[in-house]
Design goal:
single chain; mainly alpha; 13 helices; 76% helix; globular; disordered C terminus
Length: 311
């Protein structure tokens, strides 16, 4: 296997690991929210991540205004994603949320086409349909009753699609490390959530639970910081440099399947046969995205389309 092929395979495996970690995060977040409200938890999670990664920000010292603006923009997108997604889950059912957030898989190829000029391939289109069919089964056959929470989840899915394309575009700039980008994005999300919490009602910013009496809460926070944020965002930012946004989205589309498996094994939730079939379809779509290799001519077309953005 050639060196570029090994790097691409490594990126795919990292993205699948991110999907597994994020799939487990729903149960962890649910446990943490029993102790602390949404905005306070997000501020704590991304604030700690920012502190841990702050030394990496030194590499941004020589970045131009355009690059710094792009870094800030992707941070704002992440802020919108997490606020919409977390509050959306509170206002709708888990089945609705799982289906609607998976629409990111369908939206990403069209955002990439409109923005970055890369037309989805037939195989990618088939993988998108396969992933959506799996998400539909996971959601209980599509029995959806649209409400405000569903609207927030749908907005989060659209923001996810825009964010992966924006990150792909941003990571083409020389000298920008994935670690520095993750640190800066975490700082933007933490500051934004803190500002929203201070502007909201007092219950949005209560005293922190004590470590001595709330060990379970702090264990959840550490897992969210180290695995679901620090590792996951670094791995995604690193992988998107070597892959297309559609490919990244398809691999991340396995997240609901991992979430269902985690809910069954750790939370003891009962999963229907249809839901397991849906999870299998999503994993199959992710594997299809993993084994697909674009031709050199197609790769040159994609590179030329991306380079034209900066000319």
């Amino acid at each position: 296997m050639s060196s570029p092929a090994r790097l691409l395979l490594l990126s795919d495996l990292m993205l699948l690991a991110v999907a597994a970690v994020w799939g487990s995060s729903y149960g962890v977040v649910k446990s943490a929210l029993a102790f602390y409200p949404v905005l306070g938890l997000l501020t704590l999670r991304f604030g700690l991540t920012f502190v841990l990664l702050a030394p990496a920000l030194r590499s941004l010292g020589g970045a131009g205004a355009r690059t710094l603006g792009g870094v800030f923009g992707t941070g704002v997108l992440l802020l919108g994603i997490f606020v919409c997604e977390t509050y959306g889950v509170l206002l709708t059912s888990a089945a609705n949320a799982a289906f609607l957030i998976s629409l990111c898989v369908m939206l990403t190829p069209w955002v990439e086409w409109l923005w970055l000029g890369r037309r989805p391939t037939r195989v990618e289109g088939a993988a998108v349909l396969l992933s959506l069919a799996g998400a539909w089964l996971l959601a209980g056959g599509g029995r959806l009753a649209f409400n405000a929470g569903d609207g927030l989840i749908l907005l989060a899915a659209l923001l996810r699609a825009v964010n992966v394309c924006a990150t792909r575009r941003l990571m083409q700039r020389p000298g920008l490390s994935p670690l520095a980008l993750t640190a800066a994005q975490s700082g933007v999300v933490a500051a934004g959530c803190a500002a929203l919490a201070w502007a909201a009602a007092p219950p949005a910013w209560p005293p922190l639970p004590s470590p001595a009496g709330h060990a379970a809460f702090w264990a959840c926070v550490l897992y969210l910081v180290l695995a679901c944020t620090l590792f996951a965002f670094f791995a995604q930012n690193h992988a998107v440099r070597r892959s297309s946004p559609t490919r990244v989205s398809l691999l991340m589309g396995s997240e609901p399947a991992f979430g269902a498996l985690f809910a069954c094994l750790w939370l003891g939730e009962r999963i229907s046969a249809a839901a397991w079939a849906g999870g299998a379809l999503i994993v199959a779509a992710s594997l299809l995205a993993t084994v697909v290799r674009r031709s050199p001519r197609a790769a040159r077309r994609r590179s030329g389309a991306i380079e034209s953005i900066y000319m």
